[in-house]
Amino acid sequence: MKSDADRVPATEWLREAAAQLAQTDSDTPRLDAELLLAHSLGVERGHLLLDMQRSLTPPQCVVADRLLLRRATGEPVAHILETRAFWAHDFKVGPASLIPRADTETLVETGLRHCSESRSVRILDLGTGTGCVLISLLSERPHALGIGLDVVQGAVDLATENARKLGVRNRATFRCGDWFSALEPQDGPFDLIVSNPPYIPSADIEGLMSEVRNYEPRLALDGGPDGLDAVRHILKTAPSRLVPGGSLALEVGVAQAAKVASLAACEGYQCVEIAKDLCGIERVVSARWDTS
Question: What does pTM read for this prediction?
Fold first, then answer.
């Protein structure tokens, strides 16, 4: 039988773990430590914080220390926990796709403004990844149907699993293919096309935080010389897949919104708008396609 002397107070483990993570690239060492410890104990973070008098047994310390080592060597917390909160749900994540980020919730907000609440609409999500954008839209619009496309089969599998877990699998279809190429003749036309495409300039990839550069797929990050290769392709191709009056919404990088808005206008889109994220950064460009 283990004595109390063999146990480590949770407060002590958290303090030492946060100090260790503070020496790494982590922007949130204390939060990371709390999430890792809660996960190792099989409890929610909130429950852990309400029970800070607990002590860890030696086996519990071993599990927590293993997770801490993974984080300290650069692995993202979301990959360790295999989940990330986004919009109103927790999504399963993995190395096959980008980790959902709060910035991208602006894309969901914009998409909802372009989606009718009362009638059936068709939504296309290009580069769906975990499916977080499409699934969030479908969860808010119960009459909507959606298709999510991704060039990586592992991402398609993730999105399909998330849709099943979150109760929208009967309204969501996921396929593997490069942008529009996986669409079939009977698909669409779509009332709304959304995308969080790769938009980081190639030369900037090496300057990303190591947990992004080393653990998230370059295909989902690298947008070519100026970051807008995929954006240009989508802007040119989307009109043939939109209903008259349909909308397109694109997430963009820092300082790209004005350029993308100009490209959209030059392609003939109307009602071009820019939406800011919670940090005040111009994050989403939306526009309407009307042939009349």
Answer: 0.91
